[in-house]
Amino acid sequence: KKIEGMPDYSIHVNVPLVTIPVMVTTKDGQFIPNLKKENFRVFEDGKQQTLSDFKIEEAPITAVLLVEFASTNYYLMYDTLQASYIFASTLKPQDYVAVISYDMKPDILVDFTQDKQAIQGALNSLRIPGFSETNLFDAVYDTLDRLDRIEGHKYLILISTGIDTFSKLRLDEVLKKVKTTKDVTIFTMSIGWVLRNYCETHNCTGMSHGMASYGMSQIDWLQADNQLQTFSKLTGGRFFQPRFTGDMVDAFKELAQDIRHEYTLVYRPTNTALDGTYRKLK
Fold first, then answer.
1. At the N or C end, where does the chain have fewer CB atoms within 10 A?
2. Which pLDDT does position 158 carry in this prediction?
3. d(CA 236, CA 20)
């Protein structure tokens, strides 16, 4: 109430809230709908929390499509393009999507847009790769750094062999970035299954730079898969490993269902200390 002679004033109160996007699926990856607030319990460091808000959302997405496109092997480039076009076909009019490719360094093909023709045009520009290096760690770090400046929940769709050749950054530095970037879920798709299977039976010889396409041992491929799986696991996303084009279609249908149908749980922590430490959620 305005009182004559009294200056204007306001009271500002900070109330910490934790927002958790939750996907609930069957063992086959199918979304389970129609759950209610009372179906969920949240524990922070073993202590049960009280949910202050609960929503079921089917909302537009904000996402970056980050794709490996290097001068390595035809099969890998083919897989990248196939997967990228299939993902683009699942987009809806209100989605905001950016497309970034990487070899030696990341290259923004199109910044965030709702224009699906611009996204298709960006993918159409992937014709002649420049370098044989696949600096995965640098590309993921750079992309997360860009996403950290955007409000709301974001998705990183990573299409890659999982192989890193000459990144300046180490895996532990990238994992730290993954943990500290807010509101990002990473979905990863491994490419190169046909090539991997071929090389296991035909004893492929190495390429320049010891690159991922030839000369890769089974251990190298498993390490690459593990890196992609770790990115997804740390952020609540999923790892896909399609073996042929039909598998890619099914994988992106599941992915689209996951990111468009999620439960949002909100609570005020009983532990009010703002000390920057990690807390375990269950």
1. N
2. 96
3. 10
Give the helix/strand (H/E) hosting 97.
strand 96-102
Alpha helices in 159-244 (DSSP H): 171-180, 193-202, 218-235
Give the single-character DSSP code of 206.
P
Per residue in 172-194, is it b (16+ CB within 10 Å) or e — as a string?
eebbebbeebebbbbbbbbbbbe
Partner residues linked to 31 by β-bridges: 25
Q: How far is CA 200 from the centre of its chain?
A: 29
Position with higher pLDDT, 33 vs 117 = 117
Question: Which of 25-34, 44-53, 59-68, 92-101 has the lowest average pLDDT?
Answer: 25-34
Partners of 159 in beta bridges: 67, 189
Taking the CA atoms of residue 57, residue 58, residue 64 and residue 66 in that order, the dihedral angle to the nearest 10 degrees is 110
Nearest-10 Cα torsion for 252, 254, 259, 262: 180
End-to-end CA distance of the chain: 45
> Could you give the 3-state DSSP secondary structure of residue 82?
helix
Radius of gyration over every alpha carbon of the chain, rounded to an integer in angstroms = 22
Half-sphere exposure of 224 (CA within 13 A, CB side): 28
Enter the DSSP assignment of 215.
Answer: S
SS3 196: helix
One-letter amino acid of 202? H
* Cβ count within 10 A of residue 15: 7
User: Do 143 and 97 contact (CB within 8 A), yes or no?
Assistant: no
> Hey, is 7 helix, strand or coil?
coil
